[in-house]
Amino acid sequence: MLEKAFVGGRKYWILIACLLGLIGLGFIMWLWQFRVGLGITGMSRDVSWGFYIGQFTYLVGVAAAGVMVVLPYYLHHYKAFGRITILAEFMAIGAVTMCLLFILVDLGNPVRMINVLLHPTPRSVLFWDMIVLNGYLFLNIFIGWNVLMGERKGSPPPKWIKPFIYLSIPWAISIHTVTAYLYAGLPGRGFWLTAIMAPRFLSSAFCAGPALLLLLCLIVRKTTKFDPGKEQIRTLGSIITYALILNVFFFVCELFTVFYSQIPGHMHHFHYLFFGHEGHANQLVPLMWLAFACMTAAIILLVPPVTRKNEGILTVACVLVLIGTWIDKGFGLVVGGFVPNPLERITEYWPTTPEVLITLGVWATGFLVISLLYKVATSVKVEVGA
Amino acid sequence: MGVNRRKFLKIAGVSTLGVAAKPAADALAIEWLDKKLGGFTVPETLYHLFHKPEGFTPGEALIAKRWAMVVNMKQMDEEIAQACIDACHRVHNVPEIDNPKHEIKWMWHDDYEHVFPGQQHEHIDENSKKLPFLVMCNHCYNPPCCRVCPTKATFKRKSDGIVMMDMHRCIGCRFCMAACPFGARSFNWIIPWPRAEEGGLVRGFEGKEPPTPEYPTRVKGVVEKCNFCAERLAKGKIPACVEACQELCKKKGKEPALVFGDLEDPDSEVRQVLRSNYTIRRKPELGSNPNVYYIV
Amino acid sequence: MYDGGKIIAGIIIGLALLTFPIWYTSGRAAPKPEVKLPVKEKECVQPGPYMKKKHMQVLDLWRDSVVRVQQRSYVAFNGKEYDMSLQNTCMSADCHAKKSEFCDRCHNYTGVVPYCWDCHIPPKEKPEEKH
């Protein structure tokens, strides 16, 4: 089946070449980082996680799109989604690949990575995160590939794959929960120390993931002979709407607790992110406002059925959702937790050029995986005349 | 109660070992296993069946059940604080890095309002506002950093409660830095002491040499912090900062500004100082239970 | 077999490339490394042949013992006590005082790059004595 990824038109190969170029550039930058240390990034003693871990956190969410399609199809027998489960699963593979790569590039000593297995430490949340992420990657490759094979042969997927599919549903929930627990259990960080962290992760995942999937579906429809379907896209739109509203609602819950209780250690971080420090707005302030402007605009566009059912407007709304959640989770969440630091001092963070290039390289790797897998999936779908 | 708890842990441990069990039970079992294995992991213990560590604690070593420190701010001044910091950074080969973002510090001083955030107010006495509060790793009794480390590269030593760093094992994930509520940990963002063949990789550092050849340096990409001078305690010496501080205080005719000793020993100097002075600790509400006390 | 000729040619070229180091240096083995043993101290912490084979395991146990369980003294096979320290015991003035004449000789020969010296500081050697 894999051979289908190597047959394509001019546009396909240009896309692959561009992605490979970005990967190469990122890889060269990473080699440099490997040689001289993580000092080439914008991270510091006070903001000790930055862009890389932010992307990781965001992409764990994107990987969730899988479950929002698999769950209605297998548990509620919502037949329409059968057409796009494979796209959702393959997107999850790309997203989880990026997650793992972002952890890798963030490590100070990547050659010692295997220590996590040599000295397994179950009381560390990172240990569990490693298990759930690798497990989710494996499940999606395994299920996606087998179901597609079955489809190609014109037979229903093998019976023994069912338990794995059912397992993948709670497993998808676990990857967000465990990733949220990375943050939510740290005593000295008021910004993250909140029980609603895991629900917030789930809600933002369930809007960002399907939003990216919806955009990918539209690209697939435009560039291949396979049409993911009108109803499918419309249902995805509804899922995004619900999840987005929940996401903003959870954020408002957070704001209420923080600002009504007025506990300084929790308030400082929000102040820093949305108003800057002592009247000095930092680069993050406009970004954070932009994020919530995007999400609000997306809600306004998505709630009325008239606009939601219009595919053009739906596309715009999805882009807004992606921008909003990306800034909120991929940037603000991580940096905001570190500023001010435990001694209530301010250290600014902004990614450096090499850091951005490495990040782009990882994104390109993920999209290369998605492109190759989508090529296979759509070719099979066209072949069997779906 | 104690017996019940132990029994429970044992059952939890055995059942976890026997069957695949929930993460929660597993975490409990690990605590129990930890005690059994003396701080080593299961693969290490298996390895040690064939290759046993044959060491013992040297006779001259200073031994305690729980090391603790008292910082007496009534005796502290800028000069003493700086002497402590210099002594610490010298014996541990801590590099001086100008860029504050890449800075490494095991010990430093800061203002009252930053060391005790949440306890400051605008009418605090002039003296406390100016005093250099010496800060370092608190060697918490319940350290959040050790809880999160995925490789046990940072761990609390069972015998005396020192929170140690195993630089051979640290993978540089910096989870401990996020977990530490006191900002006590530094990461090697750049090569701390570039060797001749690495010349030019770190600007302004070529040719600088570590001041104490007996103590190792660190490699880029690992986290480091105060270790209560574990290497000196093993040789029967008190921590470098305490030594430097007590010398200088004596010269100035002051009581020692740093006191170090065994918290579990009722006759130790630390306990005597704690008995006769009102002391506070940093962020006690977080339950990490610091072993560094301040007389304000 | 499709493209049989091409496959066989490919296998032959591959094998030739893989075995390149063997036939290229045939009959001309590099000289065996000679380490300079300490003059003053006659015995190591374990007998010589054992150390030759197992010094990595010994050092590995030493570092675990020192860093993790606070046991820093080692009883050698001859009953002598040693401070477990690569930097201060193994490389002390009376023992392996020159890294370039001891560690490096075999490590360079076998192409091994242990990362001990990324952190631990080898004793100072005067540059002219290095070669």
Short description:
The complex is a heterotrimer of chains A (386), B (296) and C (131). Chain B is an alpha+beta fold and 296 residues long. Helices cover 33% and strands 12% of the residues of chain B.
Q: Characteristics of this structure?
A:
heterotrimer, A: mainly alpha, Formate dehydrogenase/DMSO reductase fold, C: 131 residues, mainly alpha, two-stranded antiparallel ribbon, 6 helices, 2 strands, 5% strand
Reconstruct the topology from this structure.
The complex is a heterotrimer of chains A (386), B (296) and C (131).
Chain A: H1 10-36, H2 51-62, H3 65-75, H4 85-106, H5 115-118, H6 125-153, H7 162-184, H8 197-223, H9 230-261, H10 264-275, H11 284-302, H12 305-308, H13 311-338, H14 353-383
Helix pairs in contact in A: 1-14, 2-4, 2-8, 2-13, 3-4, 3-7, 3-8, 4-6, 4-14, 6-7, 7-8, 8-9, 8-13, 9-11, 9-13, 10-11, 10-13, 11-13
Chain B: H1 2-18, H2 23-37, H3 42-50, E1 55-56, E2 67-72, H4 78-91, E3 107-110, H5 112-115, H6 126-130, E4 133-136, H7 144-148, E5 154-156, E6 163-165, H8 175-179, E7 186-187, E8 223-224, H9 230-233, H10 240-252, E9 258-262, H11 269-276, E10 279-280, E11 292-295
Helix pairs in contact in B: 1-2, 4-10
Chain C: H1 4-18, H2 20-24, H3 48-69, E1 73-75, E2 81-83, H4 86-90, H5 103-110, H6 116-119
Antiparallel strand pairs in C: 1-2
Within the CATH hierarchy, at the fold level, what is the topology of the largest domain in chain B? Answer: Alpha-Beta Plaits
Distance between the termini of chain B: 38 Å
Low-confidence stretches of chain B: 15-26
Query: What gyration radius of chain B follows from the Cα positions, in whole Å?
Result: 21 Å
Q: Structural class, from secondary structure content of chain B?
A: alpha+beta
Residues in helix, % of chain A: over 70%
Low-confidence stretches of chain A: none
Beta-strand fraction estimate of chain B? 5-15%
Helix content of chain B: 25-40%
CATH-level-2 architecture of the largest domain in chain B: 2-Layer Sandwich
The level 1 CATH classification of chain A is Mainly Alpha
Give the name of the CATH architecture of chain A.
Up-down Bundle
Largest chain interface and its two residue counts?
A-B, 50 and 60 residues
Largest sheet of chain A: none
> What radius of gyration of chain A results from the CA coordinates?
21 Å
Please name the CATH topology of chain A.
Formate dehydrogenase/DMSO reductase fold
